[in-house]
Amino acid sequence: MSITRTAGGRGRRVAAVTTTVLTASALLLTGCSSDDSSSDAKDSNGNITLTVDDFGQFGYKEAGLFAQYHKLHPNITVKENTTANEQDYYPKLLQQLNTGSGLGDVTGIEVGRIKEVVDTQAAKFADLSKTIDVSDWVSWKEKQATASDGSVIGAGTDIGPMSLCYRSDLFKAAGLASDRDSVAKAVAGGWEDYLKLGEKFKAKAPKGTYFMDSASAMYNAVVGSSAEQYYDASGKAIYKDSASVKQGWNLAAEAASKKLTQGLPQFTDAWTAALRKGTVATVACPAWMAGQISTNAGDAYKGKWDIARAPGTSAANWGGSFLAVPKTGKHVKEATDLVKWLTSPEQQAAVFKAIGVFPSNKGAYELASVKNATLPYFNNAPIGQIYADEAKAIPEAVLGAKDGTIKDTISTQINNMEQRGTKPAKAWKAATDSIDKVIG
Predict the structure, then answer these.
(1) d(CA 429, CA 252)
(2) Angle formed by the axes of helices 424-439 and 403-420, nearest 10°
(3) CA nearest 352: which of 366, 368, 370?
(4) Closest CA to 248 of 70, 21, 134, 417
(5) Residue 342 CB partners (closer than 8 Å, separation 6+)
(6) pTM
(7) At what angle do helices 111-121 and 86-99 cross, to 10 degrees?
(8) % of the chain exceeding 70 in pLDDT
C-alpha cells in the first residue's frame, strides 16, 4: 500500500538503518493501533487510554514506542488511529476542530498545513511551550508552530533534509563517475549542474532509462532550499514573484523539454513500477524518501542505489510534521507528557532507526544511533552525517496558509509539461488561475 504523508504528495515506507549502537527502543514490542477515534475516560482503577490520530507512517508503532510507554506508565495505554493519505486526514481534522468533537488526545499536523492551523485554530490546542523546551528543536521547526501570542501548538517530529539518491550502476553504464563524492562534486554548483549532469547521462544512458523520475520533485527541492517560497512575512502570497519558485519552475520546464525526466508523479503506481523496473537513475531525496525507494525498488537493486549530498550549497527541507494536543481532550496533561516523550532525542532516534525519518530534535544528532547511521540498501551511505549537516543549515522558511495547495497545483502543471507536452507559459497560467481561485 502506498502511504502518502503530505499535501505535497510525499510518501513513506520503512527504511532499514544500520548503526554502531543497537538502541533498546528498537527491541521493544510493536505498539497497538485502533479504529476507535474517541478518547476513553479513566476506569475505576485509574487506567487511561490515550488516542493518537495521525496519517501515513509516523513510526511510533514500528519503533515499539507505544509499548514502551505502557511499560513506563502501566496505567496508560496508547492507541493509534492512522489515515493513510494526509489529503483525506486534514479535512476531517478541520471538521473535528470546528465541531469540537471526535478529536484524539494527540493529533498530527503536516508542515504544509501548520501555518493555516496556527493562524485559524491555535486557541483550540494546548500551549506546549509551557511544558516542553522548544529550543531542543532546530530553530525554524518550532517557529513554524508558534502562534502570534507566543503559544506553541505543535512539537516537532521529523524533518526532510535533502540529498540526492542515485543509481551508481546506471551512472557507470553511462560513463559517469559513480562514487558519492564525485557525484556531489558534479552537482556542487546547484540544480543547474544537476541538469547538466542529466544531459551527460542521457547521451550514453542505457536504453529505457531516464535521468530523473519527476521534474516536480526537483522543483520541490529547489523551492525548499529558500527562505522565500510562497508567502512573505506579512502573509501575502508571493509565489508569482518568488525567486525560488521561478528558479524551480524554469528548471522543471528545462528538464521536461530536454526529456531528462520519465515524467512520473511520485507515489503513483507508474512511479513505483519504474523503481521496480530500474528505469530511474536519480531522485531528489529528502530523508524519508530512502524508505520509499528501497521498498519499491526491491532487493534486486540493493547496493546499486547510493546517496550523495544535495546539489548546491543551500540546504533544503521537504516535509515534516508536528504533534499537537487539543484542549478538548479528556487527558490533556497526560497527552502533553506523551508528546514530550515521543519527541525527545531518544525516541526520535528510535523512529529514525525503525523507518528512516530524520529527527527534528537537535539532541538526537549527537546520539550514536543517529550520528553513525548508514543505509545498507544505499551502499552503506552515511545518512546520519549527511542529513545532520543538512538539517543544521536549512534556512528558516516563511510558511503560508495554503502552501500545500500551491505546491500541489504547481506540481500538477509540471507533470502536464512532462506528460502532455504542455508549453511552460500555458502550464503556468493554468497553475496560477487555479491557485488564485483558492486563495483569492
Answers:
(1) 15
(2) 160
(3) 370
(4) 417
(5) 60, 65, 155, 157, 323
(6) 0.81
(7) 10
(8) 90
